[in-house]
Amino acid sequence: MIVESPTVLDAPSVRGELPGPTSARALARQNARESNARSYPRNLPIAIARGLGSYVEDLDGNVFIDFLMNAGTLALGHSHPEVVEAVQRQLPLLVAALDFPTEPKDEFTSLQLGLMPEPMRDRMRIQFCGPTGANAVDAALKLCKTATGRADVVSFHGGFHGSSHSALALTGLVSQKRPIGNAMAGVHFFPYPSRRHSALGGDPDTIGERCLEYFERTLRDPLGGIPLPAAVILEMVQGEGGAEPAPTVFVQGVREVTRDLGVPLIVDEVQTGWGRTGTWWAFEHHGIEPDVVVASKAIGGIGLPVAIVLYDEELDRWSPGAHTGTFRGNQLAFVAGVAAARIIERDGILENVREQGAYARAALEELQREHELVVDVRGLGLMLGLEVRDGASARRIQRAALNRGLIVELGGRQDAVVRILPPLNVTRRTLDQALEILGAAIAEVAAA
Predict the structure, then answer these.
(1) Which residue ranges in the chain fall short of pLDDT 70?
(2) How many Cα atoms are found within 13 Å in the side-chain-facing hemisphere of 126?
(3) What integer pLDDT is reported at residue 181 of this predicted model?
């Protein structure tokens, strides 16, 4: 049976206009002292005091259902007591150890390799990176360039791989890239099989096949203009791109082409990994074996920072010190990740993701039938998106939901996709509360 973290916060409750006075003062202090690059509090104007399970409480005592979950990092919700206990046991023993071997690291390594599909386990290596997904993407690029001796990289429209200099070069988000000159050279973007937004347009039912054909023809064409790349990087579900899942025919085809050409395939599982889509890794839905898997976010158990690259041992050709990071030995993240994985397996949480994800998607599709404002529903597992007709409407829905006690994120083109990222152990009760709020928010905006 799925049980969320025991919590005294068990229902949304918003008193008065947001932000409340204490949150408003905290937001003003943040505005006066922090970088202009801060983002989330601009559309979600609250200051958070604590989080438990699926809920957070702000400094004014308002309680919200949190379906942002630290951008998908909190697989089991906020402060799961068993994971907290594991961290507390480790805290007085050892916190950081660079890349020295330790018992927590050894157990974490065994866990990560053991979660790979069985045919991959014995041939995979692991690299511990700086504690962000973007740093792991950087490491994966360096790995593939070193192993192949090649320089160019293929990415896809709508993709998001991080905000560091090289990861940003792989990202489709033009607004972030526009001010940054001299980005990493040699990146080539190909159409992604989005049913609504693919650059190839046409019949959405054949978009996977047509994007694959374009990809294959270009890479095989001696006049295609692109040298054989060092790597192809692909998300199984584009998160920031608007909860866009790739069709199996496309994923399997990309894998076949890259294998035939000797090009390493990097699968970016920073947000999809560790059960978000209903399997441990999203690539398992498509029956492929990538050469490189990039992971972060949820693998740290309760939001503790850690990032890794899992890769085929044939690529392990870099020299000692080729990729380092002071905080790559985060012992607290290791024990938290192991504890969380044991809970996920023990409590059948992957099955819960599939069950609740199907239930939530059906409810979102009903909202689409009820409101012309909603133009699409898509996603996989508990990584769902509801696209509305424009970004302004999405922002109003996000704020109307917040005013009723639900935190959701936006993504996709024009930020017109309302994104749903519950904890993986979310209960039907909490899900129903959130869906009711979201429905009311959409109805309010649709009627305006």
Answers:
(1) 1-8
(2) 24
(3) 86
For residues 5-44, b (16+ Cβ closer than 10 Å) or e, as one string? bebebbebebeeebbbeebbebbeeeeeeeeeeeeebeeb
Reference 78, options 340, 275, 308, 307; nearest CA is 340
CA pair distance 414, 391, nearest whole angstrom? 5
Q: Is 222 exposed, middle or buried (0-12, 13-18, 19+ CB in 10 A)?
A: exposed
Longest distance between any two alpha carbons in the chain, whole Å: 65
358 alpha-carbon distance from chain centroid: 19
pTM: 0.96
For residue 66, give Cα distances in angstroms to 60, 108, 244, 421.
16, 28, 21, 8
Domains of the chain, with CATH numbers?
Answer: 21-78+348-447 (3.90.1150.10), 83-346 (3.40.640.10)
What's the burial of 239, exposed, middle or buried (CB within 10 Å: 0-12/13-18/19+)? buried
Q: What is the pLDDT of residues 34-65, one digit of tens each?
A: 999 999 999 999 999 999 999 999 999 999 99
pLDDT digits (tens, 9 = 90+) for 206-215: 999 999 999 9
